[in-house]
Fold:
Amino acid sequence: MNKPAVILASGGLDSTTLLAIAKNEGWALHALTLDYGQSHRRELEAAERVARHFGAQHLTLRVELSRFGGSALTSEAIERPHHRSAEEIAAGGIPSTYVPARNTVFLSMALAWAEALGSHDLFIGVNAVDYSGYPDCRPEYIAAFEQLANLATREGVTSEHEQGRGIYTVHTPLMHLTKGEIIRKGLELSVDYSLTHSCYFPTSEGLPCGECDSCILRLKGFREAGLPDPLRYAK
Amino acid sequence: MNKPAVILASGGLDSTTLLAIAKNEGWALHALTLDYGQSHRRELEAAERVARHFGAQHLTLRVELSRFGGSALTSEAIERPHHRSAEEIAAGGIPSTYVPARNTVFLSMALAWAEALGSHDLFIGVNAVDYSGYPDCRPEYIAAFEQLANLATREGVTSEHEQGRGIYTVHTPLMHLTKGEIIRKGLELSVDYSLTHSCYFPTSEGLPCGECDSCILRLKGFREAGLPDPLRYAK
Structure:
């Protein structure tokens, strides 16, 4: 029987590629989507569609991060970033779309499901190449979370693991890939990117805006991969 | 102006004492209660009552940990522990009331609020004396969370903190106190324990059962402190 893994799945390009990688590696997929009050609700529909496509067991859970504010993704009071190039995004530091401590909350929820399931493997589609502005996408952050997970859980108190090592693994196969490499990897694994949604601020008809940081990076990725994006954009 | 701190507040004896300690230390109190589908809903009412009593800014947020199962506190499918003595509780390892990764999720949510607020101080009422069975109540676990927090957040990417140290503090003033010492400390600070709720499995009228692990430890604490518990028990 395939070993269970919990995969954080947003319905976006990265986490959909992540599901394809985990499936290809033979894991029994448990896809976890967190509804944190993001303004781009289309993402949740895409997550459901993608999880079904991969035959994953899927849960969408609410965590009310939007009540804390602090991000342009969850609060109308914070100004959305202007249209900027991929280079400006890479150089621009932490953007206003950063959601405070989001990946920490997401990984904690994934850990809770993993512990309840008896799984020791979490997958998260973080990337340190194209979007280096997010603190919780760095390898040292992921290593610190693994360390925490090894101490946080039932098995962390048994004697053989007293050093807090070696129980949980946080898999980050996209960490060092460019967006173009992620797309090529996904296409090798027959990912259908028309199922995915990346835009932070889609139009009322659900079309991607083509101008937010997430659209700009996605479009750059398809250009790098030498392929058209199957999505239709608002502009 | 008082510096802001985020205090995890369940409405129980420990976290109510924690609020009193933080208030006494001069922090501006931001009390965070997580509704994780616990079967003891009275706890949430107590949390609201206690937060109001201390003049804290208070948020109660849902996090749907109960959908993962794995604990007698959130799932009717898992048998509740039988009535046992304080000594049996201390010796009994991880009880069925353990909720997978709960404190990791709670601290992550507290961190998210702290980051949005501009606070660097979290308070959690964990204790390594009376209830050593929970992995996520140990000092080494708390140290690992601090390390994670220092890497996870906006300020964690600025150069002066690149080692992941020194930004966030997780305050655990109850860590090494017995239940009796916690109660004496609270009474010094004029805590009204009649506001609190500790029972895991209250009766339909909301009376504490007097028999669950939480009631047993609470009653032992009042005995140690040489005082009667102001609550009326079902038995």
Notes: Chain B touches chain A through 47 residues (CB under 8 Å).
